[in-house]
Every structure is written in structure tokens, then in C-alpha cells.
Amino acid sequence: MRKVHILYVEDELNLGTIVSETLEQKGFAVTLVKDGAQVLPAIAKQVPELIVLDVMLPNVDGFTIGKKIKELYPQLPIIFLTAKTQTKDVVEGFQSGGTDYMRKPFSVEELIARIHNQLALQALPVSSEGVIKMGSFNYYPKKLLLQQGEQQWQLSSREAEILDVFSRYINTTIDRKQLLLEVWGDDSFFHSRNLDVYIRKLREYFQADAHIHIITLKGKGYQFVIDTP
Question: Closest Cα to residue 186, out of 61, 79, 49, 91?
Fold first, then answer.
């Protein structure tokens, strides 16, 4: 059975070795690169299914590399790892092509969960019209439309943006602050209250399918869960 290939870019030798060995023990094939300038040549040699990319790298930083990767390989998921914690850094990460963002220090168990989530999203059934299957629902991101059988809901732009984020974090945890940053660009109290309203609306839509749940994790964030019937 072919193993999923991960390109892991990390210049801290001890951390890179520990994480690489753990991922390999979990059944992944891992290529470890320690220099930003080596990333694109490594991808050209063998395109991975996913990249775990540190931001602070010698020669070329991760954000610059991420932008170039998205130009050349737009469907390739990138999980950024960084000690940077300011809001502007998180926003820059997603603007630089990241599909997920983890702050250092991190647990390898959570990284593995996020890797599985990103790989699962790559396998989501998306038609030529851009429809995403979510249980018994069809979600049309470009039309801001949610459909179940003959029933349809026209989503607001904010509802659609939140659902877009949830679709990238199916069956795993999305941090509340991260969700606010991705949708509004800041985590102010005003936007936090608005988020609560939109979450309630999305729950109302999905209550027609007992296999779909939006779970609130107190003090942490949310899980958008789709059970297998």
C-alpha cells in the first residue's frame, strides 16, 4: 500500500527529527527539508500530498515559499507551523496559501489530526459545479447556497465564510480565535458576538440531518462533525 507523502520543512534539527520519526511511525512517508531554498526543488523532485511548513527558515521564509507553492501547485495543502502568535501573522499565513495554521509549541498528536483532516478535505466530493457534499446536504460555495433535497437556504456572505472554514476542519477542532481571524480579520468582542449568532443559524440549517453537528468546545472553539451513517 502506497504511503501518503508529506514534505516537512523545519530548521530545528531536534524537533524535525522527532516529528518526522513520529509521522513515519504513523504510516506516512516523510521528506525532511531544513532550508527554505530547498523546498521548491524538493517538490519538483516529488510532489507531496501535503506540506508542513515552518515560517522562520534560513534563506527563504515560509510565507514567501507558501505564496510560490500556491502559484505552482494551487491544490496542495499547507499547514504552517510558527512561534508567531500575533493576529497579523495568522492572517498573513492564510493569505500566503496556508490551509491550516498551528502555533509552536504544538502537540504531534494534534498535528497528525490536522494532517488527516486536510487529506480528508482533498477527498471531499466536489463536482464541476463546485458542490461539496456534507451528509445529506449539498453546499455550493460560489452560489452561497445550501441544499437538502427540495429545500434550499440562501446563505449570507458571513454564513458562507464560516461554513467554508468548517468545511476545511471537518471532524477536528477549529479554534474560536482562528475562526474569527479567518472570517473577520480580528477577534474583537463585537465580532465574537456576531459569530455566536451565525453559529446558531448554521445549526438550524443542519438540524435536518442527525449526522451533522456543530459542537461548541468551551474555552477552545468548535467541531464541525459529520458522522458516517
Answer: 91
Give the three-state DSSP class for 136. coil
| 13 grid coordinates | 534539527
Q: How far apart are CA 222 and CA 36, in angstroms?
A: 33
- Per residue in 30-71, pLDDT (tens digit) is 999 999 999 999 998 888 989 999 999 999 999 999 999 988
Residue 60 and residue 63: Cα distance in Å, rounded? 9
Q: Among candidates 68, 212, 45, which has minimal Cα distance to 53? A: 68
Per DSSP, helices labelled H in the chain are 13-25, 39-45, 62-72, 87-95, 108-122, 157-168, 176-184, 189-206
The SS3 assignment for 145 reads: strand
| Other beta carbons within 10 Å of 181 | 22
**Taking the model in full, what pTM does it have?**
0.59
pLDDT tens-digit series, residues 136-159:
999 988 888 999 988 999 999 899
The upper half-sphere exposure of residue 223, i.e. CA atoms within 13 Å in the direction of its Cβ, equals 15
